[in-house]
Amino acid sequence: MRTPLVSVIVAFYRMRREAPRTLYSLTPEYQRGVQEGDYEVLAVENPSDAMLDKEQVERCGDNFRLIQMQKPSLSPVDAIHSAMSEARGEYVMILIDGARILSPGMLRFTLMAAKLHPKPIVAALAWHLGPKKQQESIREGYDAETEDRLLEEARWKEDGYRLFDISSLAGSCKRGWVRPLSEANCLTLKKETFRELGGFSTDFASPGGGLVNADLYQRAVNLKDGQLLILLGEGTFHQTHGGAVSGGSERAILDEMRAEYERIRGRSHEAPTPANEPIYLGMIPQNTRRFVKVGAKKSDSRKSEKTNRKVIKLLRRLVPRARRVPGAVSGLWPNESRNA
Prior knowledge:
By secondary structure, this protein is of the alpha/beta class. It has a single domain (6-282), classed as Spore Coat Polysaccharide Biosynthesis Protein SpsA, Chain A, CATH 3.90.550. It has helices at 19-24, 54-58, 77-86, 106-114, 134-137, 144-154, 191-196, 212-221, 250-265, 302-318, and strands at 6-12, 39-45, 64-68, 91-95, 100-102, 120-129, 167-169, 186-190, 227-238, 279-282. The relative contact order is 0.14. The model is unreliable at 299-304 and 318-340 (pLDDT under 50). α1 (19-24) links the parallel β1 and β2. Strands 1, 2, 3, 4, 5, 6, 7, 8, 9 and 10 form a 10-stranded mixed beta sheet that branches.
């Protein structure tokens, strides 16, 4: 059996409704520019009264496996660490929240990005399905039934980039592509880098892991010999499911998570500034272009403002000419096409 280049680890808990869409978005039929042998998908699940069906997972492809934990836990950390021990790829793509549908170029551009540096840290932005981030839209009547209709009408399986048309930026990425991210809900790095970082910290005990994913992201981008690569035009799309934050009282839950982080790290959590300037790689499909300007109005400093202006200027120049652009923004910028 061919050794996969990347092992995709997706954590599920009580997600019978959401998991089929997430898993479909990882199939070779949906992902563009990759083959089944390029990657494996390890779906890992904590015990509950609504477990996934093994056959349903494995029907997605010969490269899909379901790993079900025996010990109950409110956190996905132990489950992900268990899957990590079985991962065969040189790289690991971590999705700590299995309710997130992927865009169709995620695997292709992640593998492109990974080849650009000896110690790559590849991150993609996150969106929430619906008109606003779900902490707000749920209070205004948005629910699973509404979301099901929204997805059906979008016909996203025919073209996954349509998900951008029916989504809003998540809070962790609300400032867009050109400003620091609070975390990456789709994070890829070498398996040896994950081990070097010590994996996820087991000190975080909040439901869903609290800010454990944000903590890993911050430690990863702070590696002096690492390189953050941010994917343009790709993302994950969160389905509402009553999760740790999106389905609950946002303020109270976030306050608890931040307090836990401060107890563990001795400082408040803030979006990290990477040790090295990020490399941007990808394409800008028509559906994503309304998000290009996000983050350009305000800056953290004069230096970042100058950098942001340069990137935004470059993006604005390239976007109308995307079909003719053979180069990249600090990387590769493939020609835009339906089959890209």
